[in-house]
Structures are given as structure tokens and as C-alpha cells.
UniProtKB/TrEMBL annotation:
Belongs to the class-A beta-lactamase family. It catalyses: a beta-lactam + H2O = a substituted beta-amino acid. This is beta-lactamase. Keywords: Hydrolase.
Length: 311
């Protein structure tokens, strides 16, 4: 096991970060509103929602393990900031990109010229804002890969949230879930702990949260929240699994939710993909539930691609 900071160990020992030690109350009304949306999905869907001021929550398949896809980049982010806190990395540390580490899919750094000078803060921003795969794998290596990141997650009480890819001993998990795995409750709880300044330390948590408020992929759950309201989020998308993690800094109190899907029958990449429609419907329902007096509805007609985005 790689080094974990003394601060992290002390936080766990003091009982400040245990996932299961929470005083929460089921919101039966919200639960009933969400059930039809989840049950009608053609595949497996799960959700965890928590209203932070009241401690009320709703949960459907919230302890079921789902693939993270790119949402694994949040645990990677935690791993890098732990290294920064331990003095092994610096936030603005200079880096040099070499195209030998180029990786396809989402992101921008794969198009950089070989030997481009950059820095760690840019790698982290690209990983979160644009879900950049090249910088994500680079950051994972800098963090010490899953062999270092997973013990950190475990130290905070997370039982199922893990990095699988390029991690010794997790080959079977990688075959089943891909890059990473989590449950709706655990990933929502991780973001809640970041919001409360409980991951790594307060300064690191606040910087991680700032990074998560600058997201390019706002056509899904974020499209149903007023653009004037701050959100922190991360999206994960592969053919048969689309998931989204969102914290909403709403006028009447923060709420966090994680909507996860797997075994999706609809594997298309069109705006009306069933999992993306589900994410929008869930997000719209939650916004109207927690902020019923806020007069706003998503605008229509921003080009043909926008058709069907608002529900």
C-alpha cells in the first residue's frame, strides 16, 4: 500500500468521514416520484439523491455496482490531490506532453504537438472539464494508479468505488465494469464530502470542487438546471452505460444526485438516447421538487441538435 497522509488517517480515526455513519431520512414522496422513471428504463438504472440541509434522501438501486466510465476521473482527481497534499506533486508543476501517451476518445490533449510544455493544473482541468482521456491516464499514473487511489477511497469508507484499469489484481473487475466502478450512493457521497471540505483537506476539496464547476458536457442533466445556478458535476459515457454525478448549489440548499445506467438497450449516440432522456427527466424532476417557486424552464430552439433535449 502506498503512503496515505497522516491527516487522512486522523480524519478516519475521528469518525469524520465514514460513509455509513450518517443520520439520513428517506423522503418517501420523492422516492415515489422517481420510481416510475427508473422502472420504465430499458436496462438497469439506479439513483441516489440527497438534500444536504435536511438529510432527506431517495434511493433506487443505490447500492448496486455500476460502471463509472469517465466518472472514475473523480477518484483519480482525489489521488492526485493527495499527492499534492503529501508534497509529492505541485498544483502548477511543469509537465511536458509527448505524443507517445496519446489516447483517443474524448478530450483535447491528444491533438497537442509533441513536446508541448504544460502543467499539472492544465492536465487536471482538461480531465474534468472535457473528460480528456490522455490527461486522465497521465494523472492516474501520477497518482500512483489504482494501487494508490483505491486504498485512499477505502480509508474514507468507500467499499465499492474503485479504479480497475491498469491496476494490479483488478483484472476481473475491469472485464466486468471497465475503467472504474461505483454505486450511486457512494459516488454521490464522495462529491458531498468534497463539497464539505472532507476529502484530503479543505483547500484540496475546494480546488477539486472548482474544477468540477467548469463542465463542457451540459446537454444532459445540467440542461434542466438554470444556467444561473452553480453546479459541480462529472459525466461518464460508454455504449451500454451512461451515468451522471451532479451537485446543485440551489437557492434553498444544496442537493446531490447520481443517476447511473448499465445494460442499456439503447446504445445510440443521438440526443434522444434513452439514458440521456432519463437523466434530463430526473434532473428536471429534482429541480422542480426542491425549487418549486423558481420561475424558469429550459429554452427551446437552439439549433436542430437541441430538439428533444428539454423535458
Amino acid at each position: 500500500m502506498k503512503k496515505i497522509s497522516i491527516l487522512t488517517i486522523l480524519m478516519v480515526a475521528m469518525g469524520l468521514t465514514l460513509v455509513k455513519a450518517q443520520n439520513l431520512k428517506l423522503d418517501k414522496k420523492l422516492q415515489e416520484k422517481l420510481k416510475p422513471l427508473i422502472s420504465q428504463f430499458h436496462g438497469t438504472a439506479g439513483i441516489y439523491v440527497e438534500h444536504l440541509p435536511s438529510g432527506k434522501y431517495a434511493a433506487i438501486n443505490a447500492d448496486t455496482i455500476f460502471p463509472t466510465a469517465s466518472i472514475v476521473k473523480i477518484p483519480i482527481l482525489v489521488g492526485v490531490f493527495q499527492k499534492i497534499a503529501d508534497g509529492e506533486l505541485e498544483y502548477h508543476q511543469p509537465m511536458v506532453y509527448h505524443d507517445s501517451i496519446q489516447y483517443g476518445g474524448s478530450g483535447l490533449m491528444q491533438f497537442f504537438k509533441d513536446s508541448t510544455v504544460t502543467d499539472l493544473s492544465t492536465l487536471l482541468a482538461l480531465m474534468i472539464s472535457y473528460s480528456d482521456n490522455t490527461t486522465s491516464l497521465w494523472n492516474q499514473a501520477l497518482a500512483g494508479s489504482g494501487e494508490t487511489i483505491n486504498p485512499i477511497l477505502s480509508s474514507y469508507g468507500f467499499e465499492f468505488t474503485r479504479v480497475n484499469s491498469r491496476t494490479e489484481g483488478r483484472e476481473e473487475n475491469w472485464r466486468q465494469y471497465g475503467w472504474g466502478q461505483t454505486t450511486p450512493k457512494e459516488m454521490a457521497t464522495l462529491l458531498k464530502m468534497i463539497r464539505k471540505g472532507e476529502i484530503v483537506n479543505r483547500a484540496a476539496s475546494e480546488r477539486m470542487y472548482r474544477l468540477m464547476t467548469n463542465i463542457y458536457y451540459d446537454d444532459y442533466a445540467l440542461s434542466q438546471i438554470p444556467p444561473y445556478i452553480q453546479t459541480a458535476s462529472k459525466q461518464g459515457m460508454v455504449n451500454a452505460s451512461r451515468s451522471e454525478l451532479v451537485m446543485v448549489n440551489a437557492p434553498h440548499g444544496d442537493y446531490v444526485f447520481y443517476i447511473a445506467t448499465k445494460n442499456n438497450e439503447d446504445k445510440s449516440w443521438k440526443p434522444d438516447n434513452e439514458s440521456w432522456v432519463l437523466a434530463r427527466k430526473v434532473s428536471a424532476l429534482l429541480w422542480e421538487y426542491f425549487e418549486p417557486k423558481y420561475e424558469w424552464r429550459p429554452a427551446q430552439g437552439i439549433g436542430d441538435f437541441q430538439e428533444g433535449l428539454s423535458y
